[in-house]
Specification:
Radius of gyration: 24 Å
Distance between the termini: 55 Å
Structural class: mainly beta
Number of domains: 1
Strand order of the largest sheet: 1-3-4-5-6-7-8-11-12-15-16-17-18-20
CATH architecture: Beta Barrel
Order of helices and strands: HHHEEEEHHEEEEEEEEEEEEEEEE
CATH superfamily: Outer membrane protein transport protein (OMPP1/FadL/TodX)
Number of helices: 5
CATH topology: Porin
Helix content: under 10%
Shape: elongated
CATH class: Mainly Beta
Length: 442
């Protein structure tokens, strides 16, 4: 079964991204509306994630329910080599809505005039991708298809086999944070993050890669379904500061350490005729990289605040990635990912005491190279555009945001991919993400 894991190795990080890598770009509806340029502001329930020093910017407890609907729109086109059947693949993802409901609670306890502690819950990662298996038939049984061109009965049999190509991931984060105020200008904070992750991976594979062909019937059994379902725990810590240089300018920086989540569960391969080909316990580790960000906010007037930030993720440390372990065997995958820097800009205009308008823009480069590009990872160079509103009535605040990520198409030649990992062809991806939140401040 080891060969199955080699073929499927990349799925360990598949579609864990909203944008790039394995993290949501902007947890929190207000932060999302401001393009994720939130480290120097961090004044709501998402402060422990962005910058724990921001606990000093809010009072009391906040109870929030916010819902983000992530809608990925990806395309893939590829002409298989003649030796593999020459099949034309022209596929696009299903128009799925990956709803990420968040229950966020921030307990901001003012221990004294300088020290505060906070307890918060938030979902910092979650997405998925689902492709129509009929569009990807050529990948399920290339040997058979090479001998049976389109129009033959056997090819048609493959054409109607709609094996699932799907990935889903979700992460729930519990943070215990603290912030200390040094004088009137400097806030410093730290946070401990406990992370719970869940993951589902499915795709069609060629059973001939896993079974001795001599033991197989003559026709139609080269295609099969791989799927696994895992969950696990991890932890990490974060630090940050905010320095009010003047009444109008605040400089800030924050970081989060690498966080590895150890996923455990079951994996199996099934065939429509032979039934279950393999069923075994499965482990994988996924690491969120070291993250460092910094920038400043500028209070242009009593109503307008602007922010600009750069945020760096050390994706290169995931080069040797533990994918799976079973029956005393281990598989690793070389991702060849590069460190990436996101440039973010955002602003908020307080129209009056109840209404706020927000907007943002950011540049999000792909951490993954052409060599390891696959269709189940939304990995591309993105431009992000965000707009949102906030409306406050007494102790209730309603926030609504919409984000659009425009991806650059990647046209990858056969000779440019890493064997058994990358997928050549034309990869396109855009993402739409509306978000809505209701917050009650005690």
């Amino acid at each position: 079964m080891k060969k199955t894991l080699t073929i499927l190795a990349i799925l360990a990080v598949a579609s864990a991204a909203w944008g790039n890598g394995v993290a949501l770009n902007s947890p929190g509806t207000k932060a999302l509306a401001m393009g994720g340029a939130f480290i120097s502001i961090a004044d709501d329930y998402s402060a422990p994630y962005w910058n724990p020093a921001g606990l000093q910017n809010s009072e009391g407890m906040q109870l929030t329910f916010f819902l983000t609907d992530v809608i990925p729109m990806a395309t893939y086109k590829y002409t298989m080599p003649a030796a593999a059947g020459g099949a034309e693949i022209d596929a696009e993802t299903e128009m799925n809505h990956y709803l990420a409901p968040n229950f966020a609670f921030l307990w901001n306890c003012k221990l004294n005039e300088k020290l505060r502690m906070g307890l918060s819950f938030i979902v910092p990662a979650g997405l998925g991708a689902e492709w129509d298996g009929a569009d990807l038939t050529g990948f399920n049984g290339p040997s058979i298809l090479g001998e049976n061109p389109p129009g033959t009965p056997l090819f048609n049999q493959f054409e109607t086999n709609k094996y699932k190509w799907e990935s889903q991931i979700g992460v729930f984060n519990i943070s215990l944070s603290t912030a200390y105020k040094f004088g009137e200008k400097l806030n410093v904070g730290g946070a401990f993050h406990l992370v719970r992750g869940t993951m589902v991976m499915k795709r069609g594979v060629s059973a001939v890669s896993n079974i001795d062909p001599a033991t197989m019937p003559d026709e139609g059994l080269l295609d099969s379904q791989y799927e696994d379902e895992t969950d696990g725990w991890g932890w990490g810590i974060g630090f940050g500061f905010q320095y009010m240089a003047t009444e109008k300018i605040t400089f800030a920086a924050a970081m989060r350490t690498r966080m590895t989540v150890g996923f455990s569960g079951d994996a199996k391969v099934t065939n429509s005729v032979l039934g279950t080909l393999a069923d075994y316990e499965f482990d994988r580790d996924i690491t969120w990289p070291l993250w460092v960000g910094g920038g400043f906010s500028f209070k242009a007037s009593e109503k307008l605040i602007l922010a600009a930030e750069a945020q760096w993720s050390q994706w290169s440390e995931t080069e040797d990635y533990l994918i799976g372990e079973h029956e005393a065997e281990k598989d690793t995958l070389t991702l060849l990912w590069d460190d990436a820097v996101q440039i973010r800009f955002g602003g908020e205009y307080q129209v009056n005491e109840t209404l706020a308008l927000r907007g943002g823009f950011y540049i999000d480069p792909a951490p993954g190279p052409d060599e390891t590009q696959v269709i189940l990872i939304p990995n591309g160079d993105f431009l992000g555009f965000t707009f949102g509103v906030g409306y406050t009535v007494n102790k209730l605040t309603f926030d609504a945001t919409i984000e659009y990520l425009k991806g650059t198409e990647r046209d990858i030649a056969d000779e440019d991919v890493l064997e058994d990992v990358g997928m050549p062809g034309k990869h396109g991806i855009n993402i739409l993400a509306p978000s809505f939140a209701i917050t009650y401040k005690f």
